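This section describes the prediction task in plain terms. A model, or a person checking by hand, is given the sequence of a single protein chain and must write out its three-dimensional structure as a string of tokens. No templates, partner chains or ligands are provided. The sample shown here is typical of the held-out split.
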Amino acid sequence: MTYLSAIGGVFSIVIIGLFLIYNGAGVYSSIWLSQWTDDTYLKDSSNVNTTEYKNKNYMYLGVYAGLGVGQGMVYLCFCLLHIVSLFKTCV
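The expected answer:
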């Protein structure tokens, strides 16, 4: 509690919130990946050359990539805020 009060309540809440969002995106990306691999339309090899097959694959890939990029951005913000809060406690 001393550390949390030293960096301030707002920094503490934002850092914890970003940490939770980061972990939530990581868990949801695993769920999304399992939904992608369990898609019955994509499992049927006779649909490989159809437009719908490609569109579904691109949709799954786009969301998965977006989750990864979003997770990276949240982690970057988390690290920067954590560094700022550490300097704040030192000064």
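For orientation: The two ends are 18 Å apart (CA to CA).
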